[in-house]
Amino acid sequence: MERGNGTLVTEFVFLGFSSLAGLQRLLFVAFLPLYLFTLGTNAIIVSTIVLDRALHTPMYFFLAVLSCSETCYTFVIVPKMLVDLLAQKKTISFLGCAIQMFTFLFLGCSHSFLLAAMGYDRYVAICNPLRYTELMGHGVCVGLVAAACACGFTIAQIITSMVFHLPFRASNQLRHYFCDIAPVLAVASHHSRLSQLVIFMIGVFVLVVPLLLILISYIRIISAILKIPSSTGRYKAFSTCASHLIVVTVHYGCASFIYLRPKSSYSSSQDTLISVSYTILTPLFNPMIYSLRNQEFKSALRRVMGHTSYPIN
Q1: Which CATH class is domain 11-309?
Q2: What is the dihedral of CA 191, 210, 157, 253, to 10 degrees?
Q3: Is the pTM higher than 0.85?
Q4: ∠182-278-265 over CA atoms, to 5°?
Q5: Where exactly are the structural domains of the chain?
Q6: Are 251 and 115 in contact (CB under 8 A)?
Q7: Helices and strands: H and E segment counts in the chain
Q8: What CA–CA distance (Å, rounded) separates 119 from 28?
Q9: Angle between helices 193-226 and 231-259 (to 10 degrees)
Q10: Beta carbons of 189 and 168 less than 8 angstroms apart
Q11: Rounded distance between C-alpha atoms, residue 16 and residue 25, angstroms
Q12: pLDDT tens across 97-130, in order?
């Protein structure tokens, strides 16, 4: 196939774990149960929220969407990574690489905007509790999720189109274990400063704008919490936000390290390590942070398990 003045590569070779050739089977044994546990816990969360009417609230609606998003996100990357850990030839087709990049960008960008929507939900719940039901009706929640997905889809489409319209002639070896932006750009034969700048600015928009919205929400939340007279009331109000804050810190910390650095500081080994954290470890811990340590959710889970185990005749 021809594109411009050069021959387009038909496949890419992943080299993400090539320096750990002797440990790849061990990594497979370590990563597989973590991935299965993540799928299981997210399935439990979504099923419990759907089946227990007490959890049919905006906060748990967003949590169910977040769990579905993380399940899809890991499904795009981890199964292929696990197969490659056992395979001699670790390749992906050119089209497959483009689809993988588009899908994980779509889900990752949507995730960022969804976290901002969850921050707004916590702001309304604490700062306007009497109007919470009115302001966060089902239509509003669905609209916020749809807006997050629309932003994610548009951004993923723009970046993927820009990256895969570049000529690829010199090399097809990606120093990573999936088709992330920086490793693919690194093997492109030519890309202009303008394309680099546009991709960087889109990354800034995706990460900084939602983060600013979250910070504004929490400034107002903290101000409202400090006005609560009792320490018990302040603790209860803050505890509803603590899980969201932890997830926001981890998500934006990892994403900023990967996508908001100048190209000169790109390190394949560092990026591989950070990427493992947000494709394997973060989706593993998020369900536990959000739900499995939440007393309300655990009570709902017991009710659902009770109805399942002892159905009413």
Answers
A1: mainly alpha
A2: 50
A3: yes
A4: 35
A5: 11-309
A6: yes
A7: 11, 5
A8: 36
A9: 170
A10: yes
A11: 14
A12: 999 999 999 999 999 999 999 999 999 999 998 8
